[in-house]
Amino acid sequence: MTQYTSDLLRLLDERGYIHQMTDAAGLDALAAKQIVPGYIGFDATAPSLHIGSLVQIMLLRRLQQSGHKPIVLMGGGTTRIGDPTGRDESRKMLTDETIDSNIASIRTVFEKLLKFGDGPTDAIMVNNQDWLGQIGYIEMLQKVGTHFTVNRMLSFDSVKLRLEREQPMTFLEFNYMILQGYDFRHLAQEMGARLQMGGSDQWGNIINGVELGRRMDGTELFGVTTPLLTTADGGKMGKTAAGAVWLNEAQLPAYDFWQYWRNTDDRDVGRFLRLFTDLPLNEITKLEALEGSAINDAKIVLANEVTKLVRGEDAARSAEATAAQTFAGGGAGEDLPSVSVGEEGKRIGVVLTEIGFTGSKGEAKRKITEGAVKLGGETISDAGFLVNVADGEELKLSLGKKKHGIITR
């Protein structure tokens, strides 16, 4: 590990957050002598972020824990355009009301993980619509456009990959990197921001902001990116057969959130404990050294700690109790996901998909054929099986050993 003098970079380094930095020595020296306001941008395309964004939220938490000021930038303005990074098609347009509602919903998670207020290291949340919505097009071209060359913009992966795939990129999206660069410059001027952080896919956009600040104002700005987060089997973090793992309770029940972490691959346990919990490093070292079935104890600690941070202590305790009741006692804990089949009943494949155990009827049929589906403790082998439940009764549905739910009328 590199020897850093600042608490900030030491903490980020030992917990595995650092992938790239624009000027490590300069940032280290700055963070060692003064409070550094730093920000990360989040677009408001849904009422909740998913756990692919959790490493970035934890990065802001680490910034605050080491004595610096987190700025949560909500992209009320840039959400209207859409970041082309990693996308094959344009983003759907959202109304102002939807974007504002999404931001209010997303804020509830940040309030659990950051301390907001007026103090020097208290977090603040800002919305780039407040300044991007005020600047005129001609003014933007004159002030900012002259500092960007089309040659350079075409060289960035976010643009190049779309063009190589012959996927259309609108002029609206092409402007995204200019607006993001201007965000950094504005936050530096108005709020003293000196650091922008983000995932490794944001490196080009961050560099643009660093260079724009230097060209327009002579301000020295810094950038840090985190490694691309994938699971040990090469999968994308936060994606399951049933869909995204959302941070907000309204989008995903606490038990399902807890269970995602409980099902972590053995090889990922130590890394995830460092990134997503506040447990001391010596304790994490002991947990990740567990072998055989004992590693499951470490996974339960991981699930409890992450759920506690994101959903609260009561949610973590309830989810663990439900899991213990389901797995050890063969019962059906109250936090399990449920689905209603109504008076007419529903085919087993439909039920599996509706409850979120499978991503499609085709996958459901495959799991049934494999003998992985049980209803009321009995294996279901007929993909056309009609699930009926008597009024006032419940049936336990299981897919494999890890997915359990309740079927009601």
UniProtKB/TrEMBL annotation:
Q: Which GO terms describe its biological process?
A: tyrosyl-tRNA aminoacylation
Where would I find the RNA-binding S4 domain in this sequence? 346-406
Species the sequence originates in: Pontixanthobacter gangjinensis
* Main location per the UniProt record: cytoplasm
Q: Which InterPro entries match?
A: aa-tRNA-synth_Ic, Rossmann-like_a/b/a_fold, S4_RNA-bd, S4_RNA-bd_sf, SYY-like_C, Tyr-tRNA-ligase, Tyr-tRNA-ligase_bac-type, Tyr-tRNA-ligase_bac_1
- Which EC numbers characterise this protein's activity in its record? 6.1.1.1
Record keywords, A-Z: Aminoacyl-tRNA synthetase, ATP-binding, Cytoplasm, Ligase, Nucleotide-binding, Protein biosynthesis, RNA-binding
- Localisation: Cytoplasm
For this record, the Gene Ontology CC terms, alphabetical, are:
cytosol
Designated name of the protein:
Tyrosine--tRNA ligase
List ligand-binding residues for ATP.
Answer: K239
**What broad taxonomic lineage does this protein's source fall under?**
Bacteria, Pseudomonadati, Pseudomonadota, Alphaproteobacteria, Sphingomonadales
Motif 'KMSKS' region mapped to chain: 236-240
Q: Which PROSITE patterns match?
A: S4 (PS50889)
Motif mapping: 'HIGH' region: 44-53
Q: Point out the gene that encodes the protein.
A: tyrS
General function of this protein: Catalyzes the attachment of tyrosine to tRNA(Tyr) in a two-step reaction: tyrosine is first activated by ATP to form Tyr-AMP and then transferred to the acceptor end of tRNA(Tyr).
- Quaternary assembly: Homodimer.
- Give the domain of life: Bacteria
Q: Kindly give the Gene3D superfamilies that the UniProt entry links to this protein.
A: HUPs (3.40.50.620), RNA-binding S4 domain (3.10.290.10), Tyrosyl-Transfer RNA Synthetase (1.10.240.10)
Q: Which NCBIfam families does this UniProt record tie to the protein?
A: tyrS
User: What family name appears in the similarity comment?
Assistant: Belongs to the class-I aminoacyl-tRNA synthetase family. TyrS type 1 subfamily.
**Molecular function as annotated in GO:** ATP binding; RNA binding; tyrosine-tRNA ligase activity
Enumerate the SMART domains for this protein: S4
> What reactions does this protein catalyze?
tRNA(Tyr) + L-tyrosine + ATP = L-tyrosyl-tRNA(Tyr) + AMP + diphosphate + H(+)
Query: What are the binding positions for L-tyrosine in this chain?
Result: Y39, Y176, Q180
